[in-house]
Amino acid sequence: MKINGNEVRVGNIIDYQNKLWVVTKTQHVQPGKGGAYMQAEMKSLVEGTKINERFRSAESLERVYLEEMPHQFLYAEGDDLVFMDQQTFEQINLSREFVGDAAVFLQDGMIVSLYMHEGKAISAKLPDTVVLEIIDAEPVVKGQTASSSFKPAKLSNGERVMVPPHIGTGMRVVVNTADCTYVERSKD
Questions:
Q1: Cα separation values, 124 from 61, 75, 84, 105, Å
Q2: Within 10 A of 178 (CB to CB), how many other CB atoms are there?
Q3: How far apart are the first and last CA of the chain?
Q4: How many angstroms separate the Cα of 19 from the Cα of each of 51, 84, 118, 119, 175?
Q5: Please, are residues 182 and 161 in contact by the beta-carbon 8 Å criterion?
Q6: pLDDT by residue (tens digit) across 31-52?
Q7: Which end of the chain is flanked by fewer CB atoms within 10 Å, N or C?
Q8: Is residue 16 a contact partner of residue 3, using CB atoms and an 8 Å limit?
């Protein structure tokens, strides 16, 4: 879909210079001399590089819509991760780098959103939180349940997280997949 340069907004995905870019910041600029323009900071969806561009209102840009498709994580095979389409049951192999740092939170059977463009996976989004078991933590100290301090703990996936003092080894906790932070104690 074609849009004018002054209609670029944060979150838009633009086909620019034969690459897909997501707009991360915009600023409408009206210099004292010359015409107004939209200053946009964009990040490449494939390479992760950033650029700053100016778009005049007369410029025409191609706005792209990605198709969100739920896929089930099946297993890891070396550096590849195998996912299965929920509708067609076709399997797709993606590199561990494609998923990024969040790959450590993948669990068998987890539903992951893959964003597709022209049949090709562009990015992956894991659920916001996962439930993991604490396999190593300092012992619980009586009377510290209301304290605001945190202590380090090791999760079942090998990652480290800071947890409240009342959380001990063997407990299950909810962890944010975006930044590997403790959310709450699991209710199950």
A1: 25, 16, 13, 13
A2: 13
A3: 46
A4: 12, 26, 13, 15, 34
A5: yes
A6: 888 888 999 999 988 787 899 9
A7: C
A8: no
Conformation bin of residue 48: beta by default, left when phi > 0, alpha when psi is -120 to 50: left
How many residues are listed for the chain in this entry? 188
Place of tokens 């510290």: 144
Nearest C-alpha neighbor of 166 from the set 148, 188, 179, 180: 148
For residues 50 and 7, give the distance between their C-alpha atoms in angstroms, rounded to a whole number: 20
Count the neighbouring beta carbons within 10 Å of the beta carbon of residue 138: 13
The pTM assigned to this predicted structure is 0.72
What are 26's two structure tokens?
């915009």
For 147-178, write each residue's pLDDT tens digit.
568 889 999 999 999 998 888 889 999 999 88
Compute the distance between CA of residue 171 and CA of residue 167 in angstroms, rounded to an integer: 7
Cα distances (angstroms) measured from residue 128 to each of 43, 115, 179, 181: 22, 16, 10, 11
Report yes or no: 23 and 10 within 8 Å, Cβ to Cβ. yes
